[in-house]
Amino acid sequence: MDNERMNDEQHTNIGATLTFDLSRPGRVGCSLPECDVPEAEIPPAELLRDDLRLPELSQPDVVRYFLALSRLNYSVDTGFYPLGSCTMKHNPKVHEDLARRPGFADIHPLQPPETVQGALAVMHNLQRCLAEITGMDAATLAPAAGAQGELTGILIIKAYLADAGQSHRRKILVPDSAHGTNPATAAMAGFEVVTVASDKDGDTDMQALQVALDDDVAAMMLTLPNTLGIFDRDILTIAEMLHAKGALLYGDGANLNAIVGRARFGDLGFDVVHLNLHKTFSTPHGGGGPGAGPVCVKAPLATYLPTPVIEQTDGGYRTLRPPHSIGKLQAFHGNFGVLLRAYAYLRSLGADGFREVSANAVLNANYVRERLRGAYQLPYGRCAMHEVIASASKQRAKGVRAWDVAKRLIDYGFHPPTVYFPLIVEEAMLIEPTETESKEALDAFCEALLAIAREVEETPEVVKSAPHDTPVGRLDEATAARRPVLRWQPRND
Amino acid sequence: MEYPDDLRYSREHEWVRLDGDAGVIGISDFAQDQLGDIVYVALPAVGSEVKFMEKCGEIESVKAVSDLYSPVSGEVLARNDSLIEQPELVNSAPYGDGWLLQVRLIDPSELERLLGTQEYKDLTARAEE
Questions:
Q1: Which residue has the higher pLDDT, A457 or A331?
Q2: How far A482 CA lies from chain B's nearest CA (Å)?
Q3: What's the pLDDT at A422?
Q4: What are the C-alpha distances in Å from B86 to residues B30, B41, B46, B93?
């Protein structure tokens, strides 16, 4: 194992150490100047807190402590990050230069529009480009992330149906292979969620859809390709069936990476789609955000978009509130820095570039799939799209489960893939390599998974007790969830 | 894996044990093994109504949150509040101290629509394949 690069001693220490452990009475990190204002009375003692225990450290102690912690971070800039259902691709560094240009970085959303025409032009062009890529007619850039994009799309559908005298439509259909946010969104928007089963090939079960599709259905939320990494072959029929019943088709575009530049949601019959710029359009995911979840819609829904949308007039660009707008989603214009990076990515790739993105994303996923064949069970006999599902069900005979394999991967220097999702696959490991990884990186990852499969046969205990080479070993996740300790308290010693 | 003989099972892996006009409900040994360590159980209030194979609660493990379906219709007479502090009882004693609800049955014929021990065993064997 290549762990010589890790300084074991340092890592073992830092992972379980708190600043309080390093504290020494009287040690300080800064010196305050002499008081040069009149001293005020301190409030009476009974109003004051008895004791506030803060760690006492020197400045170098603090700097070294946090720098050492930061070096334990794992990111797409430090290694392969094959998180299924969340495209973690390389973020080109030129985007950072662009986002830091003063004309973009030093402006404020309350400035008069005539002083920020460049920024508004970027947003307007991005709206147009995203509508073109998805085959839709209009777009909003306001949603701050995918889940907010979903809520935006469903609220638009709700408002549209209400105006059409269709408020009795209370149900939203969601396939069992959907992202968990889909049913959550539908419920949050006040709809009843009806689950539609997938068939053995991973497509929507058309019989189940027929049964579920009645006059009370407002829409179906469909992820394409779905979380099994499968492109629903019946998508055109599904769209026709919904429209024939007066219901709409909502697209979850989180997996757009697989089809970008090749198939368009609008052409397939979708009425609304949200995109995740922090996935397909290569803006950073760091620290859980900020993201951006633009929503694109067909023309009849355009007047319901949230405010503001950016409009081009003879006199330049301006913000506009659409006449039937569902309202405001957040302060100002959305996460502008993210939008800017996505626009830069979009313009630097162009249409041909995007076709290469989807081609290589699908090729890479299927390469991983073929390399794992034999060692892991591969449910669904079809070619994958952008992500591949492997199951550790074979390994269960040796008492090893998917998360043991995932934790062992950490010892091999890789971020584990998503495990136990989608829920309909037993011992699932969902791997999305993305187009930005080289063959060498994919080979190294596959070799690690194959080596772990051999370990499961020969020395399963090593896998079951992993990770071994991390600052802290296997965490007791069950106790952490059952009896969480949410606040640090000093030891009474 | 245990499959007690005196129970009826649902396809969603709940069991019910008949006791007079009431039924005690839980999840099967197979289900707890599949879910892994249970960390939280959300159950309906005593006095509320549950319906045959409709969602009546949630069960959360370190892997996922799953819906609980009531294998019978009726009124909730009791629920196992010791699971609030000790959800792990569902893992250690799925047919005993890890029971979930006691329900007064409205329609005992619903039991006929559930699976017998052998049928349920076959179902889980197929799921394992």
A1: A457
A2: 5
A3: 83
A4: 19, 10, 19, 11
Taking the Cβ of residue B88 and every Cβ of chain A, the question of whether any pair is shorter than 8 Å is answered with yes
Distance from CA of A352 to the nearest CA of B (A): 40
In this structure, which long-range contacts are made by residues A446-449, counting pairs with CB atoms below 8 Å and at least 24 apart in sequence? A446/A368, A446/A371, A446/A372, A448/A409, A448/A412, A448/A413, A448/A414, A449/A372, A449/A375, A449/A376, A449/A390, A449/A405, A449/A409
Q: So where are chain A's domains?
A: 8-70, 94-349, 359-480
For residue B4, give how far its alpha carbon lies from the nearest alpha carbon of chain A (Å): 24
What pLDDT is recorded for position A323? 97
Residues of A with CB under 8 A from a CB of B: 401, 403, 419-421, 423, 426, 477-478, 481-482
Provide the number of CB pairs (under 8 Å) joining chain A to chain B: 25
pLDDT, residue A383, reads 81
Domains in chain B (CATH in brackets) are 8-122 (2.40.50.100)
Q: Does B42 touch chain A (CB under 8 A)?
A: no
**A240-252 average pLDDT score:** 98
- At B14-42, the pLDDT tens digits run 999 998 899 999 999 999 998 999 999 99
| Contact: B40, A423; criterion CB under 8 Å | no
Mean pLDDT of chain A: 92
**In this complex, do A478 and B37 lie within 8 Å of one another by their Cβ atoms?**
yes
* Stretch A52-66: mean pLDDT: 92
Complex-level ipTM: 0.79
What CA–CA distances, in Å, run from A62 to A8, A12, A26? 21, 18, 15
Q: What is the pTM of this model?
A: 0.88
Choose, out of A181, A424, A482, the residue to mutate when testing the contact with B (most B CBs < 10 Å): A482
Nearest to A482 among B39, B63, B127 (CB): B39
Does pLDDT of A349 surpass 90?
yes
Average pLDDT over residues A22-33: 91
The yes-or-no verdict on residue A9 having pLDDT over 60 is: no
pLDDT of A1 reads: 39
Pick A94-349's CATH classification: 3.40.640.10, 2.60.120.10, 3.40.50.450, 3.40.50.300. Answer: 3.40.640.10
**Closest partner CB to A420 (pick from B39, B63, B87):** B63
B36/A contact by beta carbon, under 8 A? yes
Query: Hey, what CATH topology would domain A359-480 get?
Result: Aspartate Aminotransferase, domain 1 (3.90.1150)
Largest CA distance in chain B: 40
Q: Tell me the CA distances in angstroms from A321 to A306, A307, A318, A330, B82, one per residue in order.
A: 7, 5, 10, 14, 54
**B60 in contact with A at a CB cutoff of 8 Å?**
yes
Residue A372, CA distances (Å) to A378, A390, A403, A452 in order: 8, 8, 17, 11
B49 touches chain A (CB under 8 A): no
Residues of chain B with pLDDT under 70: 128-129
Residues in CB range of B7: below 8 A, 6 or more apart: B15, B16, B17, B95, B117
Work out the minimum CA distance from B45 to partner chain A, whole angstroms.
21
Q: Which two tokens stand for residue A185?
A: 């969104």
pLDDT digits (tens, 9 = 90+) for A166-205: 999 999 999 998 888 999 999 999 999 999 999 988 999 9
Instruction: Locate the chain A residue with the closest alpha carbon to B83.
Output: A482
Asked if pLDDT for residue A7 goes beyond 60, the answer is no
